[in-house]
Amino acid sequence: MKSRRDILDHIIEAHGNRPFLKTSREIITFPQFRERIMDLSHLMCDRSSSTDTGHLAVIMCRRPKNFVLAYFAAIYAGLVPVPISELCKEREITASIHGAVYLLSDCPQSENIRNLRSDELSNELICYHLQPEKPLSAGVETAVLLSTSGSVGFPKRVMLSFDNIFANVEGLQQALQLSSDDSTLAILPFHYSFAHTTQLWAQFILGAPLILTDGPLIPKQVMSLCTNHQPVSVCVVAQSIKVLSTVTQWASNFDLSSIQRLIVAGGRTSQDLMESAIQLFPNAKILQGYGLTEAGPRVSMEIEQDAVRIMDGIRSSGKPLPNVKVKIVDSEYKETDTLQEGMITVCGPNVMKGYFMNDISTKKVFHDGWLLTGDIGFVDPCGYLYIRGRSRNMLVHKGFKVFPEEIESFVLEDPRIQRCRAYEEKGCYILEVQSTEITDPQVILERMKNELSYWKIPDQLRFTEIELTHNGKTKRNTNKKVTFL
């Protein structure tokens, strides 16, 4: 088996002197990129040679360029990167770094991690030495750990191997006919599984330019980067379209004509937002797809040659990628007929190795080698996939995933609260609380704002009595709106 360093070196050498990273300030070629990650890996590990340990290095960066450098430097040093949001609070960071040997960050929040030795890797990147009593290892075959559940408490992490990532990129390349000329503008955080594989790894493997913003999404900067670097594609979620749409009146001052593909991920996107996106990028075709972190993440994708297909009011998520199989099954795991709804199951080289240190959860999501997505959908006679909804509890709020179980666990730490329930109803994220002592919602909301990321704060907080099921668990809101991919 090749070492992590050998894998990166092989890819980089194949691309010659092509440009890899483009920002508003500089262009970094593949050879220059290798020099930088090599230097960072040596500084980080204080050694001139790398041994694959599979130990964990948490990556938390607000600047995309720093993230990319830290991420690949960790791999080059024989470590497994664990990307987390740059907006995490101290409590969430503490949970995420459990068992890791390093925290690589350029965020002010990470300075709140006390009693840690740290080294300055660059003008912005800091390496925190975590020195756990028992360092955790994800194994030499694991390329990355991506979180797929809340980060309060020990998060559930998906183990993706290099083979998983390469297979998913190969499927995307075949479906979308990607080449080294297909530059892309990255505006989504790379801790998103979608941006992580579809953009970061795809561009690296294909030898295509990856255009980066300087930090958080700033519409004028996005338009300026489009004008100066002429990307062919951009990946978005509904929230980023909303932000970009606030400056539609300035779009005529920039050249946005190079964008040919607008790839939409995350929650279901309204027709109004679709129209706003087309106004901004008039030459782009909107492509929707379906995926989940456990599948690498891409499962299916519309392609540019396809006409938009709508059945029963649902827009198709395209056909499965060429190297991915999809099967719709009933409650007994028997394959359903065409157009009959059931649970979506997935099989292919893109599917994860499993959940890190969580064999029980891993076994629950596999049946006869097929990944049980928990999502409901159907396939039409031509093989196009349609997503009806989720059978899980997860909801999407402000463009981010929110896991009710995480929120409820956090809220219930207050002994004055007896029960609580988080859910989505008509697009509104609601938190219901049952308490005999607290009557002011600000008491709960202020604690949440102080200790949780902003997207985990509910739109509404209600005091009410909450029913329990027959086995003593919180009874979920049966009228909640199902969140679509």
Write the layout of secondary structure elements.
Elements: H1 4-14, E1 19-22, E2 27-29, H2 30-45, E3 56-60, H3 64-76, E4 80-83, H4 90-96, E5 102-105, E6 117-120, E7 126-129, E8 142-147, E9 157-161, H5 162-176, E10 184-186, H6 193-206, E11 210-212, H7 219-229, E12 233-236, H8 238-245, E13 261-264, H9 271-280, E14 285-291, E15 298-301, E16 310-311, E17 314-315, E18 319-320, E19 325-329, E20 342-347, E21 354-355, H10 359-364, E22 366-367, E23 370-379, E24 385-390, E25 395-397, E26 400-402, H11 404-411, E27 417-425, E28 428-435, H12 441-451, E29 460-463
Characterise the protein shown here:
- The protein is α/β, with parallel strands linked by helices.
- It contains 12 helices and 29 strands.
- A 9-stranded mixed beta sheet has the order 2-1-11-10-12-13-14-15-18, with helices on both faces. The protein has a 5-stranded mixed beta sheet with strand order 4-3-5-7-6, covered by helices on one side.
- The longest helix has 16 residues, at 30-45.
